[in-house]
Every structure is written in structure tokens, then in C-alpha cells.
Amino acid sequence: MKLLTHNFLSSHVKGVGPRGFPLRLQASEVRIMPVEFNPDFVARMIPKVEWAALVEAANTLSLGEVPTEPIQGYEQNEDFLRTMHHILLEVEVMEGTLQCPESGRVFPITRGIPNMLLSDEQTEA
Amino acid sequence: MHIPSCQPHKVEYVSGKVFFTTCSDLNMLKKLKSAERLFLLIKKQFPFNVSSVNKGKICNEMQRLINDDPESWLNTISIWKNLLELDAKKKRLSQRDANLLKRKMGENDTVITKKLKAEQMQKTQENREYQLEKQAEEETLAQGNFLTSREKLQLEECQNEAAEAAGTPSQNDLTFRVSCRCSGAVAKTFSAQEVGRIIGIALMKQFGWKADLRDPDVEIFIHLNDIYSVVGIPVFRAPLASRAYIRTAGLRSTVAWAMASVAEIKAGALVLDPMCGLGTILLEAAKEWPDAHYVGADVSDAQLRGARDNLKAAGLEDKIALLQVSVVELPLPSESVDVIISDIPFGKKFKLGKDIKSILREMERVLHAGGTVVLLLSEAHCRSLTDGEESSIPSNSEGRRTDEPGAEKCLIPEGETGTSETVPPSLEASNQECLPKIPPFGSLMPVECYKVSLGKTDAFIYKYKKSHSSGL
């Protein structure tokens, strides 16, 4: 699970509402996977990012210096875009957990895929 | 996808086939996404008149397909060989790291290509092809339609091998196989085998070609029905619909691509498939529109495993995120998604604990105002959405349907997109009744509907737009 994806997720536990964001991230296995840099794409994602959530998640993963907000003129600032590209797209949480901050419910991340099923309804193969 | 055309031409499409001319090379043609197969046209003419039950007469007419104009056959075959040689040359040259051949087929050649079961609509005058779904039954190489009499003839294998060793076979040493599909009135008088035999024998007599069932140089494809008689050569060995980048296909890639193409995926969009299965739709979308963020969700471990494999095989793991979540309980904030594309599972195989309405409700919640939802729905889904009011879906064949299972599709765009100018009026009129009239769902306004065939069943591609109304 990439941090860009984590940034979009919120808790859907019943009755939780807006306090279900962001999901607290814990990781036991993280991989850095190089991804082709597409400055246009990164620039488009920037306005959608919830910064507090991103910073919190990045800090949990000890990613070092993380911008706390977009720089003025970020669209043309390649350094900034490259940093954001790395944080948002190149860090993969392979194993870990996501926790709903309100209800405390914990969801596992296995092999990069978060399992956020609320009830026991997986169709097994 | 824009196919360059060298001269203004008319793109003609008739129930399942699109006829067009182009001077593109094979690489461009390979990128056609919404067609099952691609053929080089040899002949297209009016259907055979079988009202007189004189088989002999009709037999003669079939032979005349070849004998009246052997030139066009030879021309098409040489164009086809040129295409392949050009392609092979390119591959050799590019391997040696030299410049690619820039020469196209030549502006003066009219290469009339036929797409089996494909539709195209011209949105703008600049020939920007907007491809909608094409569907028909799975086109294998029509194994069942072989000429049985071929087996009695000598298979000139040695000759084949010698010819291959020498390079491309000359016109006289060509081996062929005829595949035939018949439907409508013709099919009542002739079986596919019979037609294949007639054509095959005529070809042998006219050109001296030999038949080879197993590995012919050329495959001749004939399709006879009530609307046309068409003869062509398949351009590629494998159907276009079988994608190099999809390891295990779930939904047909042509339908998946078509759904993605009507979804209006813009750069930077967040695109969700909340019942992604093996990820076919997301793969097709991410391949064609790479500048968006794709998220796939499914409840099943097995499906997600398959999806992950597919993503890896296609090299698209970085573009598509996977989640194990339920479509009716999406862990996404309201109004956070730009596009939702989904194939709503139907059939008893899928134990859908939730009904289609609760699915739509959750989709509506997470969608941005102005966002798009594109769904593939079964007739049953449509019925439950119309709540049993005036079921406008005929339970079985009507009008243009023939005996072919799933070969037809009505392609009638409704709504404001205004693409209906290019639809011949007769098509529109006779097919309006096939389309289910689904009402708006909350703030989701229906925009367009397309009927597609999935082989054994039919389905509908339904597009909604979320309106900017208040209160949501």
C-alpha cells in the first residue's frame, strides 16, 4: 500500500463519520520500489493530498524530512515534486496495520493489500 | 484512439462490423482496443437471395464471389503479404537498432479493413474515433466450420515447408483454410460446412491453391447473413481481444476498454473499481489512460491474488492500488472519487449478498459531484433498477436478432452526447426498444446506455453522471 492510497482511506466503521480519518498506520515491513517519475501526475495529486495525514504516516515510517505543505509554485519545482513522488508513490507498506482513530478497530495489511472488510464476508476460493 | 487515415473516407458500420480504410501499419492496427478481430476485406456485397430454393443457383452465386473478380482476391492477398513482410522487416531492423521503415502502405492503396464485431462513431469531423463497445461471441478460429471434404485432399506439407524455407510463398503455392459463419435465411438452406466446401473448391479451381487444415498460409473468412456477404482475411493470428498485457482475463477486454472509454477519465483522476475481480477493467484503463490514480477493490482473496498477478505481468502495479473491501462499505470519504467503473457480477456464481441498489447508493456517496459511474449490468439488474415498471426489455429476439447467439448489439447512444448523427436512422428506430429505460438513482443521472453481447448473454453498459444537486 502506497502512502498516496493511505491518504485517501478513511474509516467506515459504523457511526464513526469524519473522525475516522486518518487511519493510524503501523508497518512491520516496508519496501522502497522505484517508480517512473511523472511530474505532471505528481503535480495533479498535490492539491488532493491531506497533508497532516501524510506527514503523520511518513513520520511513522521514519521517512526523514517530509514537507508539511505544498511549496509556492510547486508545479515547476522539480525537487519538490521528486520528493513528493518518492513519499507518495515509492514507499510500499507490505505488512502492517491500519487503525481507526475513533473506534480503535484494527485492519491488517498483508502483502501490500489492506483488508478492511467489516464483516466476515469474503468469498473464499 | 486515433487511426490516421490518408484520405477522407466513410467509416461504415453494420451490426457487429466496422468497415474502414486506413494506411496505418500493423503496429497501429494492433492497438485497436474495442474490436474482437481485424480482417482485411476481400469482398462485401448484398446477401444471397435464398428465396428461390434452387440450391444450385445460389451455389453458382457463391462461386462467383471468386470467379467474377479474381483480381480483388489476389490484390488483397498481396496487400496482406506486404503488411506482414513490412512488419517482419521492421522487427528485424529494429532488432538491429537501425531506423524503422517509415514507408507506410502507400497513400494510393485502399486497404479496406473490416473489424468483426466492432463499432465506431465519429465524434468530430477530424476523424477522431470514439470507440464504444463491440461485442460478439468469442471468435475462435471457427474450428467447427471446417470443410470436412478437405480431409480427403492431399495435404501438401512438403510443399509448405519448402515454400516457408524459401521465404514467403508465391501466389501459386498458397495454402488456405476456409472458415465460414452463416446465419439468417442463408443458414436455413446451407450449412457452414457446405458453404466452406463450395468456396474452397472454387478457390482451388481458380487459383490452384491447396487446402491445409492445420497450418495454412492464409485463412479465408466468410460471413453470410441477412444483411451482407463478407469475405476477408484475418490480419493477425491471435484475436485483437487477447491482450499481450493481460495474463488472466476476467471480463472481455474489449468491453472493459469500452467501459473505460466512456468513463471520461481525465489526468489526475481517482478511478475506482469497487468489484474489480481480476482487474481487467483497471488494466485496460490504466494502459490507455495512464495519468490517473487507479484503485481496485474486491472481497475475495483469490480474485485479489489473480489481480495482483495481472498487475505484475502488465507492469502496472504502480498505477493500480488494491484493497480488500466490500463495495457497500467503502473506506473512502464521501465525494472523494472522480470515476467509478464496474462490472456488476451477475449469475448464480456470485453470491451477491447485497442488492444492486445498496451498491449504487454507496457508489453515489463516494463519487464527486460531476463524477461518472459506468456499470456493466445484466438484464436482471436493469429490471431491479426499474423496479418492475414497464419492462422495456424484450425477453427474446426482436427485429434484427438472427440465429447467431449474441452476435448483435444495438449501439444507440441516448442522452446529451449527441453522437447519434452517425447512426443510420433505421438502426436507431428498430433498436430503441431493446434499451431498458432506467430512471435516475438519487443524484445519479443516466447519460448513455449501450447493449453488448458477452457471448451467451447480453449486458448493458450504463453510464451515470452525478449531478451537482445540494443535499448530498
Automatic annotation (TrEMBL), chain A:
Gene3D superfamilies tied to this protein: 2.20.25.10
Q: Where in the cell is it found?
A: Cytoplasm, Perinuclear region; Nucleus, Nucleoplasm
Q: Which GO terms describe its biological process?
A: rRNA (guanine-N7)-methylation; tRNA methylation
Family matches, as InterPro entries: Trm112 (IPR039127), Trm112-like (IPR005651)
Q: Please verify whether the record's keywords include Ribonucleoprotein.
A: no
Q: Which CDD domains match?
A: Trm112-like
* Pfam families in alphabetical order: Trm112p
What keywords are assigned to this protein? Answer: Cytoplasm, Methyltransferase, Nucleus, Transferase
What GO terms are given for molecular function? methyltransferase activity; protein heterodimerization activity
> What's the main place this protein lives?
cytoplasm
Q: Does the keyword Signal apply?
A: no
Give the highest taxon in the source lineage. Answer: Eukaryota
Record's GO cellular component terms: nucleoplasm; perinuclear region of cytoplasm
Which family would the database say this protein is a member of? Belongs to the TRM112 family.
**Protein name as catalogued:** Multifunctional methyltransferase subunit TRM112-like protein
* Species assigned in the record: Phyllostomus discolor
Organism lineage reads as: Eukaryota, Metazoa, Chordata, Craniata, Vertebrata
Gene that this sequence comes from: TRMT112
Automatic annotation (TrEMBL), chain B:
Which lineage do the record's taxonomy fields give for this organism?
Eukaryota, Metazoa, Chordata, Craniata, Vertebrata
- This protein's record includes keyword Methyltransferase: yes
The lineage's top-level taxon is Eukaryota
Q: What does this protein do?
A: Catalytic subunit of the THUMPD2-TRM112 methyltransferase complex, that specifically mediates the S-adenosyl-L-methionine-dependent N(2)-methylation of guanosine nucleotides, most probably at position 72 (m2G72), in the U6snRNA of the major spliceosome. This modification in the U6 snRNA affects the constitutive splicing efficiency of introns that have suboptimal splice sites and can impact final mRNA levels.
This enzyme catalyses: guanosine in U6 snRNA + S-adenosyl-L-methionine = N(2)-methylguanosine in U6 snRNA + S-adenosyl-L-homocysteine + H(+)
> Per its record, how is this protein called by name?
U6 snRNA (guanine-N(2))-methyltransferase THUMPD2
Subcellular location(s) of the protein: Nucleus
Q: Which InterPro entries match?
A: RlmKL-like_Mtase (IPR000241), SAM-dependent_MTases_sf (IPR029063), THUMP_dom (IPR004114)
| Cellular component terms per the entry's GO annotation | nucleus; tRNA methyltransferase complex
Q: Name one GO molecular function term.
A: snRNA methyltransferase activity
Composition bias, Polar residues: 417-427
